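<instruction>
Derive structure tokens from the sequence
<data>
Labelled lines for chain and fold
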Amino acid sequence: MGDWPREHSPLRIVDLKIEDVAFGGKGVGRESGKAVFVPYTIEGEIVSAEIIREKKQFAEAELVEVKQGSLHRVTPECPYFGRCGGCAYQHISYEHQLAIKWRQVRDALQRIGKLKDVPMRPIIPSPQQYEYRNRITVHAQDGTIGFFRRDSHRVIDIERCPISREEVNRELAELRAQQHVRDGHYTLRASTSPRVFSQTNDAVADALRNLIVDLVPPNQELLIDAYCGAGFFAKALLDKFERVIGIDWDKFAIQAARENASEKETYIAGDVDLELASNGAFLSAHRGLESRRSFMVIVDPPATGLSEAMRKAINEIAPATLIYVSCNPPTLARDLKELQEKFAIESVTPLDMFPQTAEIEVLASACCR
């Protein structure tokens, strides 16, 4: 790994024992008490690393040599691993990737969310560790087509992406075969389904949806599905609720959700925060709700998590059950910390939606106190 291109001038080389793998994928060692972050390392390893950036509280380094390797270290399958910014964990056995991600979720909830006894459930693995992505976005830059180099906006040439499905790689090959591809971003997909947001790993997305279906008892009154997209969760829960309301800012997703919608479904295109914060969707669409005992809210926000207004609205309308789907454990932890005055967390289930990468999907279930 010492021949990888250096993005910075070296400060010095140090020997470190890696103590942990932080969220984001970098190993953590300590030099004179200061945390040093080193990518492509595993806890328990002894490594030589080159300090490239030093701050008051921490330093960043590049791996020079693994002096004592972990039993969990494996040979990466991708020739671009280490240069491409997409994957962080191809050097780690899949079982250990799962253990690291499970621990990262628990640690974030304890440290940021101040949750003492986190009701963690086992992580749900991906059936496929490679060839699972149903879409990718590649970049064209001065005749080069590929992904951004790690920690930069320079594009490296990519012929094939091993974590992407064969249909996606065929699209990539067709794009690369064209002459004079214009600079820009190109999203390549495995299918021609409606171009609205969907999860990139079909099998794990189905497992996530099934998990939510299993959590919901029958004969419920009202479901509000915030950030509903095209209704991926809402439509799977139709037989359990008398009324379903979906809200999303993406008017194309709402248009797709409205196609073949039943009488019990209402889909609103608008700002999720405003719709819920004003109680508009809840009050106007279901004034006759006799009790909140069978009222449920699902939130599946972007990586930034819930806004302050959204957290306040959820606390105010106080659904009997809250299901929170997160793609970012730190913002999930922050939000649950603010919601736990009103809600008791019943279960936290990580899902490995993105094998070989540092990304983690999490489902948290909570009930109103």
Notes: Residues 94-111 form the longest helix (18 residues).
